[in-house]
Structures are given as C-alpha cells and as structure tokens.
Design brief:
This protein is α/β, with parallel strands linked by helices. It has 6 helices and 13 strands. The protein has a single domain (about 10-160, about 165-270), classed as Ribonuclease Z/Hydroxyacylglutathione hydrolase-like (Metallo-beta-lactamase, Chain A, 4-Layer Sandwich). Helix content is about 20%, strand content about 25%. The strands form 2 sheets. Strands 1, 2, 3, 4, 5, 6, 7 and 13 form an 8-stranded mixed β-sheet that branches. Strands 8-9-10-11-12 form a 5-stranded mixed β-sheet, with no helix packed on it.
Length: about 270
C-alpha cells in the first residue's frame, strides 16, 4: 500500500436519528436500562476522491412502509425527522450534497441505507454480499425497498487485498478501497453477511458498524436473548467477530474502535 502524503483531511461523525431499546430485553441478567442507539453516518473528506460517506443513517422513510414499518417500530422504536437526516446535516455544515461522489456501505439495514435516496450520481461501494442483499433482499432481511436507489448509482463490489496489513491473524478479508491504503475495508460478517467495517489508518480509527451495539456491550454477547439472536445473520459469526475485535483491540490499544450505535456524540477529527 502506498504511503506518504496525508490523504484524509477531515472526518465528521453525524448522528442521524436513533432507536430505543430496553437492554434487559436484549441481554439476560442485564439491569433495566432504556438506551438510545444513534444511527451513525460518517463524512470523510478525501484529498483525492472528495467527500465520501460511510453509511447514511435513518430517515423518515422508516415510517413509510405500511405494516412493515409498524412492526419494525413496535419492536425497535425509532425517532427521526427531516432535521436529523444526513442531507440536512450536510447542508447545515455548508457541504453541498452534490459533492458526495462516493458512499461506502457497511450493510443494508434501514439505519444505514435510509439516506441513500437523497443523493444522485455516486458510486456505492461495499462487499458483494452487502450489495446483493441491498438489491435482492426483502423486509425479512431488514431491507426496505423504498430506501434502495434505483438509478444514478454505480455499484462496485470490493475485491480482497492480498498484501499484508495490521489485521493479519485477525480478519481473513480486508479490502483496499481505492488502492492507496487510505481506507481499508474489513469483513465483519455476523450481524449481516459481508458487513464491512472501515479502518482509517491516518486517524487510527476503526469504524466497526454493527459488529456490536456498543463498546460496553461486547462482554454481554454470550447472554444475548433468543429474539435478538435471530436478528443476526449468523449469531456464531457475530460472537466470534466481537471476540476477534476485542483481541485485536488488546493488541492495538492505539486504534479507536467506533461502533455505529455507540457513537452518540457528533464529533470532528482533522489533521
């Protein structure tokens, strides 16, 4: 991978709506605690490729799927309005939505794809498994059709990187998104098939999507109740992924791991 000049100028974390859950309903023996889980969208200002989004958070489209939306919001109470959407937040920060030429998708659940339809003429990048889920999935896969862009989008599936990385011995599949080492995808399958985390080496940040729902919840994976387990694409892989991330974190404490639903604070990182 290439090294040299800094390629990432700025990173901004946005909270685009949130859902609310009682943690004692998610994990056995957990105390009663109602927690907000923000839907993260991340703006990456790349020196070569311009403005890039990693996921797009919730939008009011989550309420517009008839009975499916009613069931989703009964089981997973969601709060979002137009002011919470990624496109509104970009405009508030004087960022032209038309400058978004690339969107990197962690996986195809509604709290990650609901803002896709706000953008036009962009490249949508993810693993083959995630893109297949987005384009062929249904409500049982937590893919809502009114959130799937139908035109003006170029889909690109990443290809595994064959060189050595910091993740050797931890994760089998990594992806050099642009071939310049600036953004490295990591296969974090378990919660969703092909779910892709994003490592940003220049900032020592690892965006871990829904590999877990919060840093403090990693130790509770073995106590997850039956229904939450069913939400995972593969619970065994989900638990293994969390254990691998914990092992990686112990070896590399200098790398900050950010889970999509644990990053409630909107924050900016810049060189």
């Amino acid at each position: 991978m290439e090294t040299g000049k800094k390629k990432i100028n700025k990173i901004r974390l946005y909270s685009c709506g949130y859902c609310v859950n009682q943690l004692s309903h998610v994990f056995r023996s957990y105390q009663k605690e109602i927690r907000k889980f923000p839907a993260l969208s991340v703006l990456i200002e790349h020196d070569t490729y311009g403005n890039i989004l990693y996921d797009t958070g919730y939008s009011p489209l989550i309420y517009q799927n008839g009975i499916v939306s009613k069931i989703y919001n009964t089981l997973n109470r969601t709060y979002v309005n137009e002011n919470d959407t990624i496109i509104t937040k970009l405009k508030y920060d004087n960022i032209d939505p038309g400058s978004i030429n690339t969107i990197i998708l962690s996986h195809a659940h509604p709290d990650h794809i609901a803002g896709l339809v706000y953008f036009q003429d962009y490249e949508l990048i993810s693993t083959a498994g995630v893109l297949n889920s987005l384009l062929t999935g249904n409500a049982f896969d937590l893919v809502f059709k009114n959130m799937v862009p139908r035109q003006g989008v170029n889909y690109r599936a990443v290809k595994p990187y064959s060189g050595s990385t910091i993740f050797d011995g931890y994760f089998k599949k990594v992806y050099d998104i642009f071939g310049d080492g600036s953004l490295i995808g990591i296969d974090l399958s378990g919660h969703a098939d092909g779910q892709m985390g994003l490592w940003i080496p220049e900032y020592s940040l690892l965006l871990a999507a829904d590999a877990c729902w919060g840093k403090d919840l990693t130790k509770w994976v073995s106590k997850m109740r039956f229904i939450p387990k069913l939400i995972q694409d593969d619970y065994r892989k989900y638990a293994q992924c969390i254990r691998t991330l914990e092992r990686f974190s112990r070896k590399h404490p200098e790398i900050k791991i950010i889970y999509s639903h644990g990053a409630a604070e909107e924050k900016t990182y810049e060189q």
